[in-house]
Amino acid sequence: MRKLFQGAAVAAMLGGSLAVPATAKELTWGEHLPECCSMYAAALKWMAEEVDKRSGGDLKINVNWGGVLASVGEVPTAVETNVIDMGNVVTPYFPDQFVVNNAIPFFWPQPKSQGELGELMLSWSEKYPAFREELAKYNLKMVSVRPLPPYGFICTSPIRTLDDFKGKRIRSYGVALPAMIEAVGAVPVGMPDVEAYEAMSNNVLDCSAADIALVAAFKLDEVAKYFINVPMGASWGHILVINQDVYNGLSDSQKEILDAMKEDHLAEMLRLFAEAEVNVKKKWKDEGTVEIIDFPADVFLDATLGNARVQEVRASWKGRAMGAGMPEADADAVVKELTE
To answer: Are residues 229 and 241 in the same domain?
Structure first.
């Protein structure tokens, strides 16, 4: 009996050592989005699976969906204080906390694509110390980024002229987007994206700023049947972050795997968005459910870029960034790279 017990104990120990590496680390991710419905979620699931696979189980990311651990407004503090290890910071929701890292939301409309913005976000973090230092103030370290695709407006009624914008209540956030909405005569309504469906269903909103893929992901095409295609350009989106102390506690091999996600996660997310947009456009056309209205680009750009408040917002970021400690030359370089 004693030999049998000893044999079972040895087998259990061997089995355990084979199943879980001695240095295995599980990171807790608090995600405000639901698991079901977006390319962001799909890319995050891919990243978690890829980290597990590349590390041979030595590093895992346990994703908790739907804001159960932290709402979108709580994520930065939750990661900073290590209530959760990782999460996504929707920077336009925190223009005063993340002044430097909120560069892009001050510059709508602008000409960059989703992929171009993603690469800019990553390169700025490497080239200009103020981006990293601002995150470090809150004990945060960038893991990767979630740039948004070019935005338009999903609306409950058609908008074909500037007059059609007058008085429309449009979901908004950040700094430049409200100014741009006001420039065309509409009314910005501050609201997270996850609340847009109910707000349009109940006639609280007439439109929501969104990209085509996310319109379908959040099922906004069930309650609004007109997508207004305007030359707004892509926008900032989210910075995926990890608690700096947690990152410092990882092994070198674990850090290497997580660091590789900067480019790899971005590439997978861009692939998912491109695929989804093609599929959604085809579905809308085949089923006749949503009309895509190509709003005159010159009319929209004249109304927005020619607006004094829009230009005031664009000019304000440099001063804010310098006030937060960014050298003037770096701020000028960021503005040039973003707008040319």
So the answer is: no
